[in-house]
Amino acid sequence: MSKELVVIALGGNALIRAGQRGTFEEQLSNLSKIATYIVQLAEKYSLIITHGNGPQVGNLYLQQETTKDVPPMPLHACGAMTQSLIGYMIQQAISTADPSLDVAVVTTRVEVDPNDPAFRSPSKPIGPFYPEDRLEELKKKGWDLVHVPGKGWRRVVPSPLPRRILELNVIRRLIGNSDIVVAVGGGGIPVIKRGEGYEGVDAVIDKDLASSLLASELNASRFVILTDVDGVYLDYGKPTQRVLPELCAGEALQMVGNGMFPRGSMGPKVEAAALYTQKTGKVSVISHLDKILDAVDLRFGTRILPCK
C-alpha cells in the first residue's frame, strides 16, 4: 500500500539558529538534529521537504558583489546555487542518520507573472545594510533601496506570487521512487515565460506560498509549516498573547486580509496553510520545528481546518 504524502516546509531555524554565523558546519549540524525525526517520518510517509534560503542567498549574493576577479551571478542564479547547496546538506544529514534512504534533490523553477504588481513595488529586503556614502554607487546598479533608521540602506527586490511549478511532473514521478524529495527550495527560482522558453528574474518568491502551491498541486495528504514558535498567536508579543489550537481556512484568510498577522513573518505562513486547506479540503499545520513529529501527526501546533 502506498504511503500518504506529506509536504514539510522547513523554516530558517532548521538551518541557522539565533546567534550563529551560518557556516557550513553549523548548518549541517542543525540539520543533523532534525534528520533523525525525518527518518522516523519516512517510515510512515512519503516526504517532500521544502526550505527557505534567505540568509544563504543574501550571503552568496554579497560574495558575488564583493569579489572583484570573478564575474557576479544574478540573484536568480544565486537562488539556484543555494537550492543545490541546501539540498546537498539535507542529503548529507539524512544519509548520516539512515544511509538506506534515497533522497532526491530537484532544482526547481517557479513561473511568475511579469505583470505581477510586486515588480512595480519591490519590497523584499536582501543582503546587508549599506552606509549613506555608498548610496549613489548602489543606485547606478539599478537597485531599489530602502532606508532603515539606525541601520542604513538595504536592497529590496520584488516578491511575486508563484503561478506554476515547472518541475512538477518530475517531482510527481519521484514520489514513491525516492523516500524523500527536496524541492522548491527558497520558494523556487523565479522565471517568466519568454518566447518558447523561460528567463530568470531577480526576485524572491515566498517559500511558504510556493510550498503551499506544490502541496495543493500534488494533493498531498498534509501540509506542515515549521517555524520558531509553537503556532499561530493572537496578540503576539503582548501580555495577552495566546496560541490558537485551530482555525478555519476562510477565517484565517480573512484575518490575514485584515492585517492581524505581520506580512514579514506569520502572515504568509497562515495564508499559505489556509490556501492549501481551501484547495484540497485537508488539514494543514503551523508548528515549532522542534515538535516536527507531533506536528505531522496533528498533535501540536495550529491546525488549519476546512470548515464550511
From TrEMBL:
Annotated Gene3D superfamilies: Acetylglutamate kinase-like (3.40.1160.10)
Pfam families reported in the protein's UniProt record: AA_kinase
A biological process from GO: L-arginine deiminase pathway
CDD domains per the UniProt record, alphabetical: AAK_CK (cd04235)
Organism superkingdom: Archaea
Residues annotated as domain Aspartate/glutamate/uridylate kinase: 5-283
Record-level Gene Ontology MF annotations: ATP binding; carbamate kinase activity
Key word Transmembrane present: no
InterPro entries: AceGlu_kinase-like_sf, Asp/Glu/Uridylate_kinase, Carb_kinase, Shikimate_kinase_CS
GO CC annotations on file: cytosol
Keyword annotations: ATP-binding, Kinase, Nucleotide-binding, Transferase
Similarity comment: family membership: Belongs to the carbamate kinase family.
UniProt cross-references to NCBIfam families, sorted A to Z: arcC (TIGR00746), PRK12352.1 (NF009007)
Name under which the protein is recorded: Carbamate kinase
Taxonomic source organism: Thermofilum adornatum
